[in-house]
Known about the structure:
This protein is mostly beta strands. 3% of the residues lie in helices and 40% in strands.
Amino acid sequence: MNFRSCIALAGLLSFFTPLHANADQFRVLYTFKGYGTGGVPEGGVILGSQNTLYGETAAGGTAPCSESHGDPHNGCGTVYSVSKAGGFKVLASFHGPNGAYGTSGLTLVGNTLYGATERGGAFEKGVIFSVNTDGSNFTLLHQFNGIDGDDPIGPLVPGPNGILYGFTTNGGPNYPSQSPGVLFSLSPSGAYTILHVFSPADGYFPNTLVMTPSGTLVGGTSLGGPGNNICGTQGCGVIFSFNPTLSQYTLLKTYDGSGGTTPFIGSVAADGTIYGNDFNLFSITLAGNYQILASSDPCFIGQQQQSGPTLGPGGILYGTFTTGQCFNTSGSLYSYNPANPGVLTLDYSFGSQGSGSPPAAQPIVLPNGDVIGTAELTKNDNGGTIWEYTP
């Protein structure tokens, strides 16, 4: 179906189908107000004890932003907590030297939150930090300088013995002439180690990272791999694995653009099956066995993604698209039930007043099956929302 036909069909179906599917099952838990509380919650949320949610924002806070690219009249972002009952607290405000632009998700180990900011720090290349869940003991664990990485994004992945794993989207030993990004580890003592330097041949501009039950890291890259006439010389992205014990980097899949591109990894099942989105919902194993589970209809489900899917109870996968055509120009929440193979279900279309759009980051799924995520209000607004959907 071409775009013009899609628009025409959308106009016809709008008489019969609500624009915001299942709106009665969707609710906003919190609306960010910008400067004081923070705004643009691009990193999503994680669940702690007593139904408390934690996250980062890319803007706002209680301190002016002194980062060279920042707005002195607005903050550099926040770390926050919010209870489902509505209690909101700013745990830390970024102001430049201590970090700037909290676009990553957080990781909770005990009562300590670990995270990264895209910019800020002594070299304005990003930082890794920790802070207690009550807002005390904010500590800078590492400040990137470009040569050891630049622009860390994505939640840090906790491994054995308290080691944290992560990646940067830019930087590396040959920075600034080459800036492909690095895979790194950070020990509890603060020892920072580059594990792998990305390259055009084996994938670069990494975007997601997870750990399998065997302790192997698996991630996706937005670019890299073999060049072709679809993606050009920059490549269409790869899926990779890294074994920390063997220091072994392996390409599990390279893309040529014909059956997907730009893979985002989201979840790992107990049996080690890895789930992701490359404009198709897919599964892959450490042996490289790749399977398309379902393909998205860009007119009704969505088109662009910024994260992989989340595995929920019963093996149901939930994810978001940030844009689409026809109904879903503001993004959507979708689900996949393995009992209905090959089919993606549109659960909610964003864009209604107050819901926020587009959805940002990977949603979480509670033990009862409820789905919680974040959204931006508009591209020019420093607000945002935390939302919940009950299937």
